[in-house]
Amino acid sequence: MQRKLSAPDLDFDAVRNELGVSEDYGATAQAEADHPVDRFAAVREDRTDLPFVTIDPPTSMDLDQAVHIVADGEGFVVNYAIADVAALIEPEGALDAESRRRGTTVYFPDCSVPLHPRSLSEGAGSLLPDQTRPCVLWTIRVGADGEPADVSIARATVRSVAKLDYAGVSADAAAGRLHPSIDALPAFGELRHRVALDRGAVELDLPDQEVVRDGGDARSAPGAGSIRPARSAPGAGSIRPARSAPGAGWTLRLAPHTPADLWNSQLSLLTGMCAGQIMADAGIGLLRTLPPADPRAVSALRATATSLDVDWPADVTPGQFLAGLPREEPATLALMSVGATLMRGADYLALGSNGDGDVRETPSPDRLRHAAIAGLYAHVTAPLRRLGDRFATEVCLAVTSGNPVPDWVTRALPTLPKILRAADSLASSADRASIDLTEAVVLAGRVGETFDAVVLHAATEHRAAQVFLADPAVIAPCDGDPAQGRGISVVLTVADPSARKVLFVPAGG
Fold first, then answer.
1. How much is the CA Rg of the chain, to the nearest whole Å?
2. Residue 431 to residue 434: CA distance in whole angstroms
3. Which of 91, 83, 160, 135 has its CA nearest to residue 114?
4. pLDDT tens digit string along 177-213?
5. Do residues 507 and 450 touch, judged by C-beta distance below 8 A?
6. Which runs of E-coded beta strand occur in 344-485?
């Protein structure tokens, strides 16, 4: 039996310093965040009659979304409240400029560095329980076919009555005691998931590496952090560590996926698809795009399935094939990993004005779409954590109300794709550097030991093979030429914390 491996207390300040990430927002921007004013208070609808709830990791305080969902015949009525960040930030002021410099909240295992100061992101702007808050309220009627039948958007005030978490919602659903405000969520989530797969969407369910304090629970204990990629599309999931106190060591494990993760992601995906359609129809806005999968990537996935003796019927889409794989099989890990190549080329696309009043040429329909979602898509549901969401939301509000898009939005739109690409790159670097450091420190002193692993990728001319260890949860290069998708034993040959490097070789090879 393998002994449990853990690292001493790790200081992730070195990673933050290396990446230039800090909570210094400047005095003027900080003051604006500390004393926000709701610029639309006089025109809001009062929807505090609806008992909204939030679903987030237990330690999260930057709550972007609150939901109230009910069955409506064979369909559903979804009320989805999104924090109205744009109402609390003076357009083109100091805080706006600082948020554009940052682009995103950056997550580390021991803390997050928010896009906006905590007084806004975890205070006045957050949909915290028992607080009346400004929001942008999406009301979406979903038919029995799982498709949106009617969409309305309005500025409103709402009041969350409960702060729920994924594990708790999943347990309550299994026990038949879901909060009344989300009693219809499982049926809605499963319906939308089926519709997505039938539409040709692709969902990857690779294991998520999670960096946690020894003895901690990343979903409930302060001081736990996790690195959690999205389940199916950008914005569908979240990386939500909490701030922590020093004292304990760190370890790596697999982050559990709960049914509530999937159900909740479908709320965000539905809203993002409605937003994408609104902006594409109007010819102005900010879309999240992904080109169609390279046919060579699909062929490579089929070839991998054949080499692993996994049946893939000709009439089954890649998304349906991947969704139907047994989660515990070693071959599934390899196929999911290869499936990630179907999702290359994600980008942002600004539609409409170029900032000087000129109208841009309309891109082709394929250029507008997000191939993994098999439809139009936009980020609008996490404005506390992502810069582009508040601008896209303003476009949707203006278009659906018949008003012109505000000038400060049209001026910003053409600049946002570049900002968001850089922000995504920074967030990815923070994730990778944090995990690489933890892997190397956790395994330091264990060189020469043997571990059970699964080969995610075979070696190529340009890259070593890649193996996955379940305990501790490590993904690392492996010398030699092990067969993809097979379970093997590997020997640790390098664990260098200063270089953040880990390397294995096949046992006996």
1. 23
2. 5
3. 83
4. 999 999 999 999 999 999 999 999 998 877 677 787 7
5. yes
6. 347-351, 450-457, 465-469, 474-478
